[in-house]
Write a structure and sequence with these properties.
Belongs to the ABC transporter superfamily. The chain is of the alpha/beta class and about 325 residues long. It folds into two domains: about 1-240, 3-Layer(aba) Sandwich (Rossmann fold); about 250-330, ACT domain (Alpha-Beta Plaits, 2-Layer Sandwich), CATH 3.30.70. It has twelve helices and 14 strands. It binds adenosine-5'-triphosphate. The site of adenosine-5'-triphosphate has 13 residues, from β1, β2 and α1.
């Protein structure tokens, strides 16, 4: 659905050139929810804005739904942009217009006739759960409701792609969850491809099928979200993963450990969870669980346990070999 080929954006500033995006090549599949994460200044916004040419790349190719956007004249580009909706952290609603008018405006701008607009706006407000707020003004809405209006507006002209620029960063955790649930519904029911930029791994964990990690304008790692969480390759990816799966043990506890400290990681299905109790029955070792969690990465469980194995050295070694045989990832720490 979206192909970026060696996309670069270099800003010319008074103090010299600033690299926004540095030769990024990516493919985002139709119907996918794709996350782009990175710290502030990594180039996420610039890259996202290159997808709908809000930011014109200095070089490279941007192909959306088979159309090479950089080859289009400005009028053709305006039409092509109708199939790419966008929402922002700051909502950008028109404060002097009602919720209804804010959404209707997008239809008017696309040339939809007045009689058809009303029906479509009501349908969109129903989709985002705001049918009762049609006559309200943006100042009368909560942050989550404002984002719902902006989602309705972005979907007005039936886009194939929805770009989300830190869409939940200004929202509290529970409102974030409800907006992510709405985006999930839009992706599943309408088949819209979604690209989300965020610095929150919780967002990626919740809805992204695949994701990319950016630093200094480059993509440093990319892949299925589950693989990124269960087997991060780059230190930066690990940094982000740790914001969700932090397993640092207090130094005082570490100082008191006499046995072998083991970190087990597996898909948290029940059958595999029995590995630990099987191991404790088979060998003369005790296992003290010091930390344990099953996280759901887009609904697929990932179990991580840290335990201390205590007992005779040879029994510990046998127990460890047994664990290594049955569990995909076992690490002595
Ligand atoms: N209009 C501009 N003119 C000059 N430099 C810019 C411009 N926009 C972005 N940059 C620079 O490009 C780099 C990438 O910025 P960008 O906003 O894309 O990062 P980001 O990862 O989205 O950060 P944030 O999360 O803070 O928005 C930064 O060094 C930034 O200063």
């Amino acid at each position: 659905m979206i192909t970026l080929e060696k996309v670069a954006k270099i800003y010319e500033t008074k103090s010299g050139q600033v690299v926004g995006v540095d030769n990024v090549s990516l493919t985002i599949n139709k119907g996918e929810v794709y996350g782009i994460v990175g710290y502030s200044g990594a180039g996420k916004s610039t890259l996202l804005r290159c997808i709908n040419i809000l930011e014109r790349p200095t070089s490279g190719k941007v192909i959306v739904d088979g159309v090479d956007l950089l080859k289009l004249k400005s009028k053709q580009l305006r039409v092509a942009r109708q199939s790419i909706g966008m929402i922002f952290q700051g909502f950008y609603l028109v404060s002097s217009k009602t919720v209804f008018e804010n959404v209707a405006f997008a239809l008017k701008a696309a040339g939809v006739e007045k009689t058809k607009r009303k029906e479509r706006v009501l349908e969109l407000l129903e989709l985002v759960g705001l049918s009762d707020k049609a006559d309200h003004y943006p100042t009368q809405l909560s942050g989550g409701q404002k984002q719902r209006v902006s989602i309705a507006r972005a979907l007005a002209n039936n886009p194939k792609v929805l770009l989300c620029d830190e869409a939940t960063s200004a929202l509290d955790p529970s409102t974030t969850k409800s907006i992510l649930a709405l985006l999930k519904k839009i992706n599943l029911e309408l088949g819209i491809t979604i690209v989300i930029i965020t610095h929150e791994m919780e967002v990626v964990k919740e809805i992204c099928d695949r994701c990319a990690v950016m630093q200094d304008g480059k993509v440093v790692e990319e892949g299925p979200t589950y693989d990124m969480f269960s087997n991060p390759k780059e230190p930066l990816t690990l940094d982000f993963i740790k914001t969700v799966l932090d397993f640092e043990l207090p130094q005082k506890l570490l100082d008191s450990i006499s046995g072998t400290l083991v970190r087990l990681q597996f898909r948290g299905e029940l059958a595999e969870e029995a590995v630990v109790s099987d191991m404790l029955q088979k060998f003369s070792v005790k296992g003290n669980i010091l930390h344990g969690k099953v996280e759901y990465i887009k609904e697929t469980p990932l179990g991580i346990f840290i335990m201390e194995l205590v007992g005779e050295k040879t029994e510990q070694e046998k127990a460890l070999a047994y664990l290594k045989d049955r569990v995909k990832q076992v690490e002595v720490i």
